[in-house]
Structures are given as C-alpha cells and as structure tokens.
Amino acid sequence: MLNKKHLVLLASAGTLALTGVTTVQADTLEDTRNNGAVQCGVSDGLPGFSSPDDQGNWQGLDVDVCRAVAAAVLGDSEAVDYISLNAVERFTALQSGEVDVLSRNTTWTTTRDTTLGLNFTGVNFYDGIGFMINRDLGVGSAKELDGAAICVQSGTTTELNVADYFRANDMQFDPIVFDTSEQTVGGYQAGRCDVLTSDTSQLAALRIQLDNPKGSMILPEIISKEPLGPVVRQGDDTWFNIVKWSLFAMINAEEYGINSANVDDMLSSEDPNIARILGQSDNYGEAMGLEADWAYNIIKQVGNYGESFDRNVGMDSPLEIERGVNALWTEGGIQYAPPIR
Amino acid sequence: MSVRPNARPVGQKPPFWRDRAKRALIFQLLLVAAVAAFLLYIVGNTQANLEARGITTGFGFLSNTAGFGIVQTLVDYSSQSTYGRTFLVGLLNTLLVGGLGVLAATIIGFTVGIARLSPNWLLARLANGYIEIFRNIPLLLQIFFWYFAVLRTLPSARDSLAFGEAVFLNVRGLYLPEPLFESGFGIIPATFLVAIIASIVLVVWNKRRQDATGKRLPAGWISLLLIFGLPLLALVATGVPVTWDMPELRGFNFRGGITIIPEFLALWLALSIYTASFIAEIVRSGIQAISHGQTEAAQALSLPRKLVLRLVIIPQALRVIIPPLTSQYLNLIKNSSLATAIGYPDLVSVFAGTTLNQTGQAIEVIAMTMAVYLTISLLVSMFMNWFNARVALVER
C-alpha cells in the first residue's frame, strides 16, 4: 500500500523528468486505438461505483463511464483496462499517463480542476457528505456530534468538508485518518471512532458490508456538495470532448427514451432528436474523430444513464439509492445534458 | 622488481596527461560536471513538463490554508492553519515517535543484550527467545499486531479499563491526568537544576580527592538523593502548587487530561521492540568481542566485579557497539514512516499523504519529505560519530 503509492509518485516524477517537452498535445485517441483498450482508473473497490463482481468483472456507475468511452472509441464496451487506484494515487496516475480517464467517484473542485493539470468532464453522480453512526449511541442529528471521533479516508474532500462543518457549528472532533475505505470501516467497526463519514452514496455501499448493517444508521444531514465525475488530462481537447460527450450521450438517451433494449427499433424513429443522437441524420462523431454510430454503441452496449443508475446504485441494486437530485431535469432532478446537435 | 628508468631529463615536468594525480583530478571534474549537467537537465525538463501540462509548481502552497484536522498535534493547530504548519505538526509527530522509540529501544536492547549473557539459564533463554521472535517478524506485521490484535480489542470508551479513577484505557487510547502548574511552581525546576549542578561538582571533587588521597565517597548515591530529594523537598515546602486535570467521560469521549492515541502506542511499541532485538544482539556481540583475558587481568588487579564491567569491559565494548547502533537508530527513525499504515499522523501521513493529495504538488511535497528524513538521519549520524570518536580507543 505504502510502497505502491510511493512507486506511483516516483514513477510520475520520473516520467515528468525524462519525457521530452515536445509531446504537449498528446493524441490519446490515437494511442487508445493502437492499444485496443481504454486505460481507465477506478476505485479500489466501492460497490455500486466500481468494484469487481464474483467473476472478476468490474461493475458500477463509474465503470459504465469507462465502458461508454470504450464503446464510443473502439465500438466495444469491454475493451477497457481497469486500473485500481486509491484516493491518494488517483491524480498522479492520471497526470503521469498511467490512466487516460479517471472515473473514480472524484469530487469536482476548483483546486483539482485548475492546479493539477486536469479537467473534469461532467457529473455522473451528485453526492454529498453524510455521517454514519451506531444506533446505540442514540444520536439523531449531526449537530449532536460535538467531541466525536470520526473515521475519514485520507486525501478526500471529506477530510476538508468535515473540518469545515465542525468549525462552522463550533464543535470539536478527532479526525482518525486512514488510507483506504476498508481501513476506515475497520476503525469504525472496532469502535476506534464513533462516526464514519464519506459521501452518502459510499456510506450506503459501506453499510451493507458491515457485520451488522441494521446496527448503524446514516444521519439525515448532508453537509456538502460533492459532484462526482470523470476526469481527463489537460491539453488533449479531442479526448476531453469524447469523454464529456460519452456521458452526455447516456443522459440524452434517457431523456429521449432510448435504452439498450429499444435502440435498434429507435434507429428508424421519426424524432429528429433521436435520429441525431443515433447518427442517422448527421455524423456528430466525426469532429471527435469517431464513427457516426458512437452514441448508438454506447446505448446498445452500456445503456442509458437511468439504466446504468438503476442497475448499479438504484433500486435494482443492493444499495437502493433514490434517484433524488440525480433524476433528469425533466423529472425533478438536476441531471441535464447539453443537446446533441 | 626493477626500478623504471627515468627517460626524461631531470627537472623537466611531465605533460599533465602523463601525471597520474592530475589525470585523476581531471576525470573527477568531468564526472562531477556530467552529474551536474544531468541534474540540471532533469530539473529544467521537469519544470517545463509540469508547466506544459498546466500543473502548478512552487512552494507557494505552504502558506495556503490546510483545511483539515489532525488528531495528535504537539503545537497549536486547527483546520485554519497553513500547509506549512501541517508540515511542522507532521515533523514533530515523527520526531516524537522516533525519539521515544530510540530511547525505549536502547533501554530494552541493552537490558536484553546483557540478559542474554547472564549465567542464569532461564534469563538467557528468555532473552534469546525475545531476540529470535521479534527480529524475524517483519516490522509492518508487528505494527499491525499491536494495533489490530492488541489495541483494537480493548473495550469501548464507556466500558474503559479504569485505574484508580485517574487513568483510563480503551480502544480510543490511554487517558492520563495532566498536571497543571500554578504560580510558584518555577522553584521546583530551579532546585532540580541546582541539584544537578551540585551533583556534577560533587562527582568531580570526589574523583580529584580519590586521585589524591585514595579515599572516596559513594558520590553516585548522594547525587541521586540530591537530584530527587531536593525538588521533592521544595515541592512539599511550597505546598504542592500542582493541580491535576483528570480525564472525564463527557459525551462520546474522555475529555481533559492527556490522551495517548492507540496509533502512537502501536507504532511506538512495535518500533521499540523490533529495533531492541537488533540492539540486543549488537550489545551482546560488543561485550563478547572483548577478550576474556581483559576480565581476568582486571580481576587479577583485585577490582570488584562491578568495576570490572564499568571500567574495563563496557568502555571497550562501546567501541564495537556504537557504529552498528547508529544504523539501528537511523533505521528506527526511517521505519517510523510506516505510520501511514495505521493512520498515525506522522510526516508521511499528513504531509506526503493528505497535503500532497489536497494540493497535488507531488514533486515539491515528496522532495521536502525526503529532505527531512535525510536531514534527521545525517544529524543522528553526526552526533553518533562524535560520540564514537569520544569513546574510541586512543592508540598511541
């Protein structure tokens, strides 16, 4: 764990030191085509977002972004190399080129968007930080947490937001910081801390892994905005566009009622919006260096955003997270994709 | 071997490329220039690459607000402090566990090392068992053992093990009463200082007197009495100007008093015990390196056994012990970076971990962290080399 982290850091320093300065406008699309697979950075195992199933296949909402990019670029959603990264390794891995897309429940913040040489391409999950606590403690609100010991994962925005929240409410806490989410759960279960804090979606995922899920509850307060989305390196606008529009295609598909089951029937649809999305009327893939059927491939092989949500984190999954703010704008949520035209 | 005939006329200097010393100097200069050029290229290229990729560089981030909390801080720190402050907090936490680790490892190591040579069969076997067990298990596993297998199994805060309503032990750590000094307490450290100076004077005077007259006082015992007795006397005389801040269960946790977090305990125990097993072997080998003839010769001079050890064996053994002991101290301090594995907030954890991730300035942060370990290690070795030079055998 320690060694791996430092290896990644050293490797990235080495890469930055030794590569020539000339390759500024890297051609990630060309590299990916030659390689035959998208290099995608995912989490070190977070159910619902990115975790391997019992056959070792990666699954989750974040994994579906990787698969959508692979479907758009290579026409095959399975052509992805998944690279598991912890919170501390993730940006260095992307900066150094170990991965080309980082789709790992990463919060979009100013610092990350502007100082790391990275670009966020959109939001595939609107999240917020919550607290999970043992029911026996009889706490009903985050405002009652003064003096609590709180387990939190190192290198996350959670670390910052929790400190802000306690300061704003004039409360004290002891931060118990671990490297991986597995360790934070371990600390919570052993009683090292009273409270486990993370994005609420993660808390839901972590709670079902506890020895006694019923013994813990998630407090009602959501204390921060955590828009999670895919990230790419700065300096390759074509690749930035591809990743951005792969996600938008999934959201647009849901809005216009196209899903993996009916996409073939939809090819003959009279609706001009649908014809544009599926590449029947015009070729919107060309400017991104893609085929006209790029969005068709995404929808056919991965599904639309709603399908992906339900399958991985929604009501069809063990996590049973409500759509809430992640519903489409037409259905009371804030998921909104620019039109394909 | 025949003497090589000197073909050149006497008085004429050979050309510089035939002069071995000059040639060596030139090659060394060339090598230094090559290394410097390479480093310069690397630094310049890294900077250009970072800039080209839009990654922020420089050390300006050190004055930005850190925004996260740290559980154990030796200096004032809040989430409003800067990253520079974070660096200091991490550094002090590293030095704390390193310093206390060195101290404990030395004490345990010397005790076990001497016990290993004891004529008492059981004691020698026990010491041997200690060394073989702790020397041969990887340090990380030992840290995990103390943290997960020992300290994690302690009861929760509400069912703490209490020792006389003052000391509490639970899964959150060890809670001790904290002494709060009232005005008038200053006299106690002052008497302590006086006692120490008086003891030094006494020891020096005693030695001179012994050299001159052969008579000696039990100066060691008198000094001990002075150093502990005088401050105690002053304490009673001033009416004990100390109050104790007792830890008390309030809300979720114990508040007040001194808290020793389990991460620190686990790391400190593991580092001390692991390194002590190596120090024990170094001490044993140091003592055994002194020829038995030395002991016999000293005994033949009718020196008592205690003085044989103190005046003959240990001074000579130290010469053998100190150099490898230095490496063990350095190892211990560097190994303290394993703290991240259990979440102890040391330099690597709070600075090369959290700070690095929040700022994304990997190269600066890692370079600073490496420079810190290098500096600490060089300082320790400098001190130990100085000490070694003092105890080294002066040969005539």
List the helices and strands and how they pair.
The complex is a heterodimer of chains A (341) and B (396).
Chain A: H1 2-18, H2 28-35, E1 38-42, E2 51-52, E3 58-59, H3 61-74, E4 80-84, H4 90-95, E5 101-102, H5 110-115, E6 118-120, E7 125-127, E8 129-134, E9 148-153, H6 157-168, E10 173-178, H7 181-190, E11 195-199, H8 200-207, E12 216-218, E13 226-228, E14 231-233, H9 237-255, H10 263-266, H11 272-277, H12 294-301, H13 305-312
Parallel strand pairs in A: 1-4, 1-5, 9-10, 9-11
Antiparallel strand pairs in A: 2-3, 6-14, 7-13, 8-11, 8-12
Helix pairs in contact in A: 3-9, 3-12, 9-12
Chain B: H1 20-52, H2 83-116, H3 121-135, H4 139-150, E1 161-163, E2 167-170, E3 173-176, E4 178-181, H5 187-213, H6 219-237, E5 242-245, E6 248-250, E7 253-255, E8 258-260, H7 262-288, H8 292-300, H9 305-335, H10 347-359, H11 362-391
Antiparallel strand pairs in B: 1-2, 2-3, 3-8, 4-5, 6-7
Helix pairs in contact in B: 2-3, 2-7, 2-9, 2-10, 3-7, 4-7, 5-6, 7-9, 8-9, 9-11, 10-11
What does this structure look like?
Chain B: Pfam families: BPD_transp_1. Chain B: Keywords: Amino-acid transport, Cell membrane, Membrane, Transmembrane, Transmembrane helix, Transport. The complex is a heterodimer of chains A (341) and B (396). Chain A is an alpha/beta fold and 341 residues long. Chain A has two domains: 193 residues, Periplasmic binding protein-like II (D-Maltodextrin-Binding Protein, domain 2, 3-Layer(aba) Sandwich), CATH 3.40.190.10; 96 residues, 3-Layer(aba) Sandwich (D-Maltodextrin-Binding Protein, domain 2), CATH 3.40.190. Helices cover 37% and strands 16% of the residues of chain A. In chain A, strand 2 and strand 3 form a beta hairpin. The longest helix of chain A has 19 residues. The termini of chain A are far apart. Chain B is an alpha+beta fold. Chain B has a domain of 180 residues: Orthogonal Bundle (MetI-like fold). In chain B, strand 1 and strand 2 form a beta hairpin. Chain B is globular. At the A-B interface, helix 1, helix 4, helix 5, helix 6 and strand 10 of A face helix 1, helix 10 and helix 11 of B.
